[in-house]
Amino acid sequence: MKTIKIMKYIALMMIAVLALSCSAEDGMDGADGVDGINGTQGVPGEDGNANVIGRTIDPFPGWVAGSYLGQDANTVQIDEPLLDVATTENALVLVYFQLFGENIWYPMTYSYVYSAGGGEVITFTYEPNLISIFAFNDSGMLNAVISKARYFIIPANDSGRSAQGEDGIRLLLEQDGVDISSYEEVATYLDMQ
Fold first, then answer.
1. Nearest by Cα to 122 from 102, 132, 108
2. Is residue 105 part of a domain?
3. Among 82, 105, 62, 79, residue whose Cα is nearest residue 158
4. Per-residue model confidence as pLDDT tens digits over 22-35
5. Is residue 88 reached through a cis peptide bond, with omega within 30 degrees of 0 on the bond before it?
6. Do residues 64 and 141 lie in contact, with contact meaning Cβ atoms separated by under 8 Å?
7. Is 167 inside any structural domain?
8. Euclidean distance between CA atoms 33 and 109, whole angstroms
């Protein structure tokens, strides 16, 4: 019996020593080890703009007499077979142009107001398989010296996230900080310089 009491006493003392010797505080952290070698490059992901169409018209074709909303205007028609019915309903089409061979891209619709009043307009429309560009001023047809044009057709499923139609794509681009009046910002965003 005395042996059992001694054993209980020793066990109780060991538990007390163990409880008092453990602490929640850490010691000092050791020095960081040397970084390991970099792993191998992963498989490239799918291009985020795989369905975006970007085309350059260079040189820009000659103007043909036509009309825009009942007003005399010069026009150029560009055949685009990838601009089908579904795409025209669910895509954003952006068109830019350069004047006089300068390396400055202007967005369409472009409107220039003369200081004496009046002005000139260069704009576009699109429909299945066709992009039409128009140039006119107050007196009729405008012979704009366009040296090249570039257009992007951005389907709703390719603006980075899901969007509904032209307005939805515009909104998503705006939310991503892209100014669609800037050719450079759009081309950079789409990775299509």
1. 108
2. yes
3. 82
4. 555 666 777 777 87
5. no
6. no
7. yes
8. 60
Q: How confident is the model at residue 164 (pLDDT cuts 50, 70, 90)?
A: confident
Number of C-beta neighbours around residue 104 at 10 A: 10
Cα–Cα dist 127/85, whole Å: 8
State the SS3 of the chain. Answer: CHHHHHHHHHHHHHHHHHHHHCCCCCCCCCCCCCCCCCCCCCCCCCCCCCCCEEEEECCCCCCEEEEECCEEEEEEEEECCCCCHHHHHCEEEEEEEEECCCCCCEECCEEEECCCCCEEEEEEEEECCEEEEEEEECCEECCCCEEEEEEEEEEHHHCCCCCCHHHHHHHHHHHCCCCCCCHHHHHHHHCCC
Question: What's the pTM?
Answer: 0.70
Total structural domains within the chain: 1
> For residue 73, what are the domain limits?
53-190
pLDDT of amino acid 74: 97
Please name the residues in contact with 68: beta carbons below 8 A apart, sequence gap of 6 or more: 75, 123, 134, 136
